Amino acid sequence: MKTIVKYVMLDLVKNKTIIVYAIILGLLSVSVLSMDSNSSKGILSLLNITLLFVPIIGILFSTIYFFNSIEFTELLLAQPIKRKTMLLAQYIAVAAALCIAYVLGVGIPIAIFYSGLAAFTLLISGLFLTLIFSALALLIFVLFKDKTKGIGAAIIVALFFTLLFDGLLLSFIYSFSEYPIDKPLLGLISLNPVDLGRILVLLQLDVAVMMGYSGALFKKFMGSATGSIYTVICMIFWIIFPIIMSARIFRKKDL
Amino acid sequence: MISIEHLTKSFSKFIALDDISLKFERGQAISLLGPNGSGKTTLIKSILGLVIPEKGKIEIDGKEIRSSWEYRSQIGYMPQIGRYPENMTVGQVIGMLKEIRRDCKKLDEELIAGLGIPGFLNKTMKSLSGGTRQKVSACLAFLFSPDILILDEPTAGLDPLSSELLKDKIAKERENGKLILITSHVLSDLDGITSDIVYLQDSKLMFYKSVDELKMSTGEQKLNKVIATIMQNQLPKHSNN
Question: Any alpha helices (H) in chain B, and if so which ranges?
Fold first, then answer.
């Protein structure tokens, strides 16, 4: 497994998309951070950039990479290698490469301009989102035989979590506003990794006005410590569940 | 060495392999022939464990291969289309496979030298032509001196010189008592290196006979003539069904 991860990483660090992704993140971070004098405002802008770019780029890049390397996967599976090992090695390599790009693009500017708990949480949140959306890409890869359909599914999943889910949540809040829906709402938010990533950072920032409904709920019900632990646990689940599912399905997939 | 019993596989509604039973032994060089979509690649992939059959079983040296993976150390596979990670160099691909197969003590680097691979070890895979990539695939199949060689269209895309070299290597390995499975549409390339022919059509096994037997029954000497004669004799029968 280590061997496969190592060599796939060697391929990925030279991949143009990864390099461009890191550079764009870096440029955005530097420009946002040098514009705002207020540190929490800078972090908030970076949070929005992270929540917009990381899921879409993460899931699309991973899906395309998995589908493109299908012939190589076949060649390696003709060697004495377990299917599970092969799949995990590919996931680790792709997710690690995207994480490195994120750390270079966002982590370094943050370290230069600010430090502090909120900045650190933003970094953690971005890395979690990278791991989650590449895991979802892995699931898409094992579920679809056709590359085009797979990419379509990846776009739908990314759009669903970044845009559609919040709309559905709002209409849910609106139609049930007469009832005590605070607790079911907390459960619903856990179903969206992008919201979890947002809340994790917001809990560390003392900007109650900007927290929005979901953030305020989390703070009210759990306080920032318990809230953070809960979101982290949810996000870990969001990584592990798709990977386990993928490994199961991949065991019986025809290549 | 390989025994296949009642192998059946379908993809949604399309039946790719229909109740195939075959037995291959050491020292045989078997050509898998048949029109496009007749199930040749599916058969190969079933032996490699890349395609999971619905019914039937495949045994290698008496052991069923279902859900095991260790048996693949005995197999060298050359795929029809060799696509590799674009930014990896040829040297890295070969190095990677060698590291994965640390268990293998007996490396066979004859083809690497013969096909001139050392000349482009530092080139990335995306900069290579299709034929050169094919050469890399061929080297990888033979590298770990496997007992079973599975070659899917090995000579397609190779220049005549490399193609001859590969054919000589195949003949040599056969003499060393290895089992060789080849699919190819270039029948003239198979002349002289195959001992037996498996003919698949519409996912069914039409026949499995030795080349000598076929030459006797058709009275032809060249393999492409032999196959042409058989196909002509079978076609009318087939359309009557």
Answer: 40-48, 90-100, 110-114, 130-143, 160-175, 187-190, 211-218, 223-240
